[in-house]
Write a structure and sequence with these properties.
globular; alpha+beta; 39% helix
Length: 210
């Protein structure tokens, strides 16, 4: 949930230029930031146009995950080469699904602020309810944090199983990389508050059981 500031992106750009690397920027959470955090697309920064492919999706703030539709932004020559590859690999997105996304894309500046405000309130309410320490997300709609200090000698997977048996599914950290074997990820927008907040209570109880 961290939003990279411009100075960090500039470091990445300099490194990529020095080593003649392509930048492939996964910007699935484009527009979904909180507390005034600015989303800066690295592909829009000066001097990156010819070496950056920015990838966007309609699955997140647009809330059309089931359609599996997205788009890429890059230099015209790169897009031509990508089209040559994709025409032989990808036939999934239907024509009507692509047409469905035109109007939401045109009107995004009208409705996105309300979505961000709503998700931000869900985040704040869930954090206020949690008895476990969790970093405050600057973007996205997930809590991602380690639970090792709360296991009290218990097995990590048994604790996750206990949550599952209580009707709560959390994502294990190892699914997001080998550096996060004791982390869990919780979505705070996937259900209405009347379900999410009691679930946070249950997770707190399970994590602090002796």
């Amino acid at each position: 949930g961290i939003v990279l500031k411009r100075e960090y992106l500039e470091i990445i750009v300099r490194f990529a230029k020095d080593h003649r690397l392509w930048l492939i920027s996964d910007e699935a959470y484009d527009g979904l930031t909180y507390d005034g955090a600015e989303h800066i697309s690295i592909g829009a920064m000066k001097g990156t146009e010819e070496q950056t492919v920015s990838i966007f999706t309609f699955s997140k703030i647009f809330m059309f995950a089931g359609l599996r539709v997205g788009y890429a932004a890059a230099a015209a020559d790169m897009i031509r080469h990508m089209n040559k590859i994709m025409v032989h690999q990808l036939y999934g997105p239907t024509t009507f699904a692509q047409y469905m996304m035109i109007e939401p894309l045109k009107t995004r500046r009208q409705w996105m602020p309300a979505v961000r405000e709503h998700y931000g309130k869900l985040r704040d309410d869930a954090m206020a309810r949690a008895r476990f320490p969790v970093p405050k997300p600057e973007g996205t709609y997930f809590f991602f944090f380690p639970v090792s200090s709360m296991l009290n000698g218990r097995d990590y997977w048994n604790v996750l199983k206990q949550m599952m048996e209580s009707g709560i599914a959390v994502a294990p950290g190892k699914d997001f990389g080998s550096h996060f074997p004791d982390y869990i990820r919780i979505c705070f927008t996937g259900e209405p508050p009347e379900k999410t907040l009691p679930a946070i209570d249950t997770i707190s109880r399970i994590l602090y059981e002796a």
